[in-house]
Amino acid sequence: MRRAAFPLLGACLLASLAAAHDHWIAPSSFAPAVGARVDLELRVGHADAFELQPRDPRRIVRFESLPGMTGEPVRVLGVDGKSPAGLLRIKEPGTYLVVYQSDHAFAELAPAKYAEYLREEGLDDIAAERARRGELELPGRDSYARYDKCLLTVGDAPAAGFERVLGLPLELVLESDPRTLAPETELTTRLLFEGRPLADRQLKLIALDSPHTITLARTDAEGRARLHPPAPGRHALFSVHQRRAPSELGLQGDWQGFFASFSFEVGPPAPR
Question: What phi-psi label fits residue 202: left (phi over 0), alpha (psi between -120 and 50 degrees) or beta?
Fold first, then answer.
């Protein structure tokens, strides 16, 4: 399994095409008090170079909070056209998951930029298929959707419920509780595509607190990957999957892209 850790520095922040695709839920607190207001920002870009995505009801397929173990989803409210995109108050202590799912959007990238994107996201199979089809000089034309999760601990909650599967088309599922992770302990996660383990896909763990490190791994045959967070604090996990766009879906472009993220705090909540 390939792993790497390195700082986000200089031009790498904005010049990296893949980074422009990173999208995650950033709560005002990963451990709010019972009944406290939680602002849920949708961020796109890098940990220290991002834009805020305002709430757009035309793009929202699903924006909900759910108790970690069992229970029905509650719709996340917000003000259209404004950021934060979501506002939440949870009145019962416990572990909660917030999920955001978008509809498909279209993007077209020049050939060199598209090749850089595929390389950054570890999509070697897509690059190879483009080569086989003689498409390397053609722009990359994708319809993509986002599947974001975040983990909240409300009040004095037991360490349970973080592993709940929410049924997203591409979903990152934690098998280790990041809140109780000891130093040098591996964080284990699985990647599911349409409910089944997805093998040989790159996972990227980014520290949202400075220094903004990246840790990479690839999923095994069971869709599982193990990573070592470099330090306690706020993190986001990302993965990208891609396939030739099925004709029956009527999507714009040649490829269908799936972008998954999961934001959480490693260790006990840090003072803000």
Answer: beta
